[in-house]
Predict the 3D structure of the following.
Amino acid sequence: MVNGDKDVEILIDRSSQIPIYRQIVARIEEMILGGRLPEGFKLPPERRLAASLEVNRSTVLAAYRELKGLGLIDSHVGRGTLVRAAHPATDHQPSAGDAPGRTQISWRQILGDYQPRIPDPLIRDLLSLAERPDVISLAAGLPASELMPLETIRGLLDTLLTRVGPAVLQHSPTEGLTRLREAISRWLVSRGIPCRSDEVLVLSGSQQGLDLIASELIRAGDEVVVEEPSYIGALPVLTASGARLISVPVDGEGMRTDMLAAILDRRRPRLIYTLPTFQNPSGAVMSLERRQHLLELAARHQVPVLEDDPYSELRYGGARVPSLRALDSTGVVLYLGTFSKIICPGLRIGYMVAPRPVLQQLVLAKQASDLHTNTLGQHLVERFITEGHLEPHLTGLRTAYSAKRDAMARALATAADVLRWQAPEGGFYFWCRMTRRIELSRLLGHAADAGVAFLPGASCFAAEPAESYVRLSFSFPTETQIAEGVGRFVEAVRCTAEDPRALYPEAAGTPPLV
Amino acid sequence: MVNGDKDVEILIDRSSQIPIYRQIVARIEEMILGGRLPEGFKLPPERRLAASLEVNRSTVLAAYRELKGLGLIDSHVGRGTLVRAAHPATDHQPSAGDAPGRTQISWRQILGDYQPRIPDPLIRDLLSLAERPDVISLAAGLPASELMPLETIRGLLDTLLTRVGPAVLQHSPTEGLTRLREAISRWLVSRGIPCRSDEVLVLSGSQQGLDLIASELIRAGDEVVVEEPSYIGALPVLTASGARLISVPVDGEGMRTDMLAAILDRRRPRLIYTLPTFQNPSGAVMSLERRQHLLELAARHQVPVLEDDPYSELRYGGARVPSLRALDSTGVVLYLGTFSKIICPGLRIGYMVAPRPVLQQLVLAKQASDLHTNTLGQHLVERFITEGHLEPHLTGLRTAYSAKRDAMARALATAADVLRWQAPEGGFYFWCRMTRRIELSRLLGHAADAGVAFLPGASCFAAEPAESYVRLSFSFPTETQIAEGVGRFVEAVRCTAEDPRALYPEAAGTPPLV
């Protein structure tokens, strides 16, 4: 690898109409394509380049992101930003009929005509970090592999293919298999959640529910209420539909419905998105009073509520609180569920419960999107529920995850000087506030050196938060790995706190992570 | 069932600002909710109501569609349009905390704020017809259940769960499993299609590829070139993104590239969508000369080509023609493939081959849409290819489908007086032109009476075609069912041709099917 850790000469024309970041992109692209910056060349860190060009760091950040999108550079946590290996759009041998030297199509120009619907998340670097074998990942909310009901599933698949036959491999209705919709409905009713089978739409994972709702209910400029913090996977989907997000803070009793009331008095959002039970990332459970208040407000202002509920069956202590759907008497709630956390995520089986007029419209959107959810997975989940495997399996999960939660609480107990947190009563996450506000990109670097990955809290906010948070997940690692991982993490936090460059620059513009 | 086959009294105010179809909706809704039209009441046929109100038939059609969307009525081929059973948005028992008599939320109003992204296809009635056990379906392009490699799949699943373990049930990368991307790349290269594994994006069925391309490349008002006729599932996805479709006719040698050339001289479409090999529905194969012409035009005008290629491995005669991707030297082609027709559709495994800058953007959109494709199905397809099951399986499929095609050709040979067609060299469909232009909704009725389903050709056109076409699929039924089904269909065509009401009304506005 060429270590070009020196300044790159870039001339900027401040009187030009062309935005500065575009000028930086054009100049670096020219140098890469012209061979002046070879493969593996290490570009200067954003901060340094920004200082030398006397521009905002966010300008350099935007330029590097665009260069990354063009496939010209790659950045790697802990290694910096490097020039990629050169290759044309397709590198296959020319075919017999080719005119030699025919011009390549300019995908850059075609794609550049429009803003991408989903911006490139810097978080991807982090996820690739988590794949390094020496790294303990406390970042993603993966369910534990060792808790998956492998043997039960193997038996059910064998029976399905033997007894049911080709139907399990054939096309199936967009709404989902009737038998599965009935099984989901019965199971929800048994949990106190009213549901008719024709109100159930089977989804290719609950993420699809967010996408369908965003595409059918939201148009550019609409306002959507989200919790602060909120699920990292929901925010880009909502903004991709052109929604302007209104954040309502979450405290120990869930969404601050007093603040929601004030918002609804003045604005007319199209949707309220909430995770009322074991909220991701905060772990908060919305109190019964707040739930009733939320429903009352939503019905009065005629604003639909999307209740995202992946974790409510994973309760390790405390008393159950009814779901919004169970408390709703006005039909204002759309209920989103999934089997990803409680059976396994690889089947991609989620579901939504919605009043028929909504469901009918979502069915058409789903048909256009992927025709239907995979049939084999649907049969499997139906058998898993109907043959009575789910309840005993859940009992086992609660015991095992509860022990993992306790292991994380024990490990974090030594870090009260740098972190504030409360052990959650359910779900997968500890939400930790830093006692000092620090730059999370620095912390990422120190954590990568220490061999641990985490989710920077800023990813869970629509706007830059006033304090520094991290989300630590205890679901995937073993208890031993949790102890070791948290140890490494706390060490990284202490290193960062002692690193003078990592004090959060109060005057800075764009935060390092979105 | 109450048979209310008499006129419904509706007063229309022609001086009102409210569109007439809205007035019809409001009046019928009022009668249904007021109990004057009870559950099961049969509404007058569109044609009769239109005549009695002295409005266009399309106006009544629009009103009935809206009422259907509201969940108030349902229409059934052969049974007419009936008032649905009444039920509130949710019919569960009020919970303890409920304020009695709390107002239901008005989903009708919330949904009515926006035009649905995907219009309700009347074709749905047809698909429900095809589910009647007494009906032989020549409508949908389902692969044959009896040809699915059930035993091989059962063995592979067992091995995967035993040997690979929980990873086959865990989350997996949005791009697709690396092993599967490599297997697809190797398989494509073996078929003469250049492809690197990092150019492969695994999809939840190839339909998702259409959806992602539409959402990332197309913005409202953009023009998109489609073939005429084209794949029924593609047109609504493209128009949902706001695309204006420019249709280029297909003849025996595929898309008329001379006409495409004339269009590209004057317009600047964002995309050319083509099914060059065994086109759905026409069965046409684009000639080598046209393929080269298309690629030359696309590169010169810098317009991406989306090559949809589900059927090319199902060739029963004639010489292979290279895919557009194989002939492309400029990187202008996005190639869309699927295992639905050649392994099974229930796993929902498709893929796209695209230059890296495009792929990177599609990956982000896919992540927002469904995180990733189901992991179990991906492992299964990877094993199926890598262990060498695919090639012998394809040989068997070609023999069996070829025999089905021949059975349909024999059965249709007696119908030269009413239908014109050419046996396809591959794929799943016969595309038949009626010697007389007839109203396809009449034909649907007669066919339903006779116990056979088909796809009305108009569904495959962006604009109303000048002649009447039907698509007959031979893939799913057995050879015996094909003979019987075609016999029933031809009888229905003859009945319709003798039905004076079925002669196509030349002066009419909206066609009966979109």
Chain A touches chain B through 110 residues (CB under 8 Å). The domain at 123-147+392-502 of chain A is CATH 3.90.1150.10 (Aspartate Aminotransferase, domain 1). The radius of gyration of chain A is 25 Å.
